[in-house]
Amino acid sequence: MCINCIRNQVDITEDIPKTSTIHFCRNCERYLQPPAYWVRCELESRELLAICLKRLKGLNKVKLLDAGFIWTEPHSRRIKLKLMIQKEVFSSTILQQIFEVEFVVTYHQCDDCHRVMAKNTWQSMVQVRQKVDHKRTFLYLEQLIIKHGVHKETINIKECKEGIDFYYGSKTHALRMVEFLSSIAPLKSKASEQLISKDIHSGTSNYKYSYSIEIAPLCKDDLICLPPKVAKSLGSISPMVLCYRIGNSVHLMDVNTLNVTEVTSHTYWRAPFQSLASSKQLVEYYVLDVEPCGPVRGKFVLADIQVARSQDVGRNDTTYFARSHLGAILNPGDSVMGYDIASSNFNSEAFDVLDHSSLPDVILVKKAYPSHRKKNKARSWGLRQLRKEEEDMAPRKQEQSKQQQDFEMFLRDLEEDPELRSTINIYKTSQGKPQDAGQAAEGEESDFEEEDFPEIMIDELQGGIDDDLEL
H or E stretch including 128? Predict the structure, then answer.
């Protein structure tokens, strides 16, 4: 027989179905992989191709040479495959054939989403709290959670006054969140369980697990006055220190000597201490003179800096001298944010026992960019956010404005700190055009802005802010 007659009389695809179904959960956007395993995969991905091939019976009787997707509209609920197979039909005669298979995507709710819709949905809960008067820490934690995909196992996220609650369908997923948080923040956790039901015949019990997490009430740029015993245990560092970094431990620095120390989470919770002042109490100063002193530690350079309050410039001649770690980035004429020690009244026992005559009048924290802030230009970048369920009572207008202010301060921290924004994902928006990495700000407005403003470049941005968002 010739090849054409063999192809007309023999069909090696007769045992393979040309149509089939595949189950898809619309809530969590996962596909069913038999027998009962749900997988999250993109359209035309290798994972989805493997699921489709496993749905075809009789494919193990032939030799599969190639398989690929045929483009279909994403909303058509159809997935088409083009397969190439081989099979020996006669003695020493191998027939090769190409055919198409169509899969109909049917909606089917998975077990996890089914439990969400019913009562007693969650089995484990992680309560994250921090006793501070702002939301900057939780805004940063939210971005880290999105970047590392830790939120994908949550069945609900609820925002409350002092933190966030994460709900999970299994204890393993909750423990994974606890381990992730402990790796990025100094915290202490407490576990508890509640008996829901018990079967005396089989000896099985159903529990609900709760994990309470308290994050240390310390943030970047906070002014801290260490208790005498704690300062002595940290190598006799100066009690008046500045928090310049927060990770799974607290990094402190004495701005007068550039001495640094690290307080681990275990050490902190053994003898906890509070912040003396937070970033909301920063005062803007105008730099009059900068004189480097010599010691250098990484990007920090010790310098004697003469400053005056920005609101006092042109009104009086009151100036202050401060020794600061910002000698490498400050120049005469710049603006800088700092704590006014001389005019402040702190309620702290550790501060009361200090020799106030030896304390500086001003402690400088970070450089400011008031000229750029006055322009109110639309940002060409944005952040993704988790879909959170708010409390039953809607927040008042004062609380809403406070939350917007905290978010704006967080965005400013990202703009001014390249090291901070390198740890999260920043996305493009359609409001403005981001700047190229090798292009400086040009035009008429550039003459009135700070030349060294840390503009976010286009090579630092990810894809669109709404592209393939899985929250």
Answer: strand 124-129
* pLDDT tens per residue across span 297-342: 888 999 999 999 998 888 888 899 999 999 988 999 999 999 999 8
Please, which residues have CB within 8 angstroms of residue 286's CB and are 6 or more apart in sequence?
A: 307, 308, 309, 310, 313, 333, 334, 335
The rounded distance, in Å, linking the Cα atoms of 452 and 333 is 13
40-86 per-position pLDDT tens digit: 888 888 889 998 988 888 888 888 889 999 998 888 889 999 999 88
Q: At what angle do helices 136-148 and 171-182 cross, to 10 degrees?
A: 120
CA 220 to chain centre: 16
Q: How many CB atoms lie within 10 A of CB 89?
A: 15
Report d(CA 14, CA 104) in Å as an integer. 20
Question: What's the rounded Cα separation, in Å, for the pair 159 and 149?
Answer: 19
pTM higher than 0.85 for the full model?
Answer: no
- 3-state secondary structure string across 259-293: EEEEEEHHHHHHCCCCEEECHHHCEEEEEEEEEEE
Structure tokens at 152: 């994908």
Q: What tokens were used for 341? A: 């020690």
255 exposed, middle or buried (CB, 10 Å; 0-12, 13-18, 19+)?
Answer: buried
Beta bridge partners of 195: 207
Q: How far is CA 311 from CA 232, 314, 318, 345, in A?
A: 39, 8, 11, 20
In angstroms, the Cα distances linking 385 to 107, 128, 132, 160 are 27, 17, 21, 16
C-alpha to C-alpha distances, 469 to 28, 29, 49, 298, 387, nearest whole angstrom: 12, 11, 22, 38, 11
CA atoms within 13 A on the CB side of 82: 7
- The pLDDT tens digits for 232-289 are 888 888 899 999 999 889 999 999 889 999 999 999 999 999 999 988 899 999 999 9
Instruction: Retrieve residue 144's tokens.
Output: 């880290």
DSSP 3-state percent helix, strand, coil across the chain (nearest 5)? 25, 35, 40
How far from 146 is each of 28, 112, 233, 413, CA to CA, in Å?
Answer: 16, 21, 37, 18
- Residues, the chain: 471
Other CB atoms within a 10 A radius of the CB of residue 189 amount to 15
Where exactly are the structural domains of the chain?
Answer: 3-111, 119-196+203-215, 223-368, 396-464
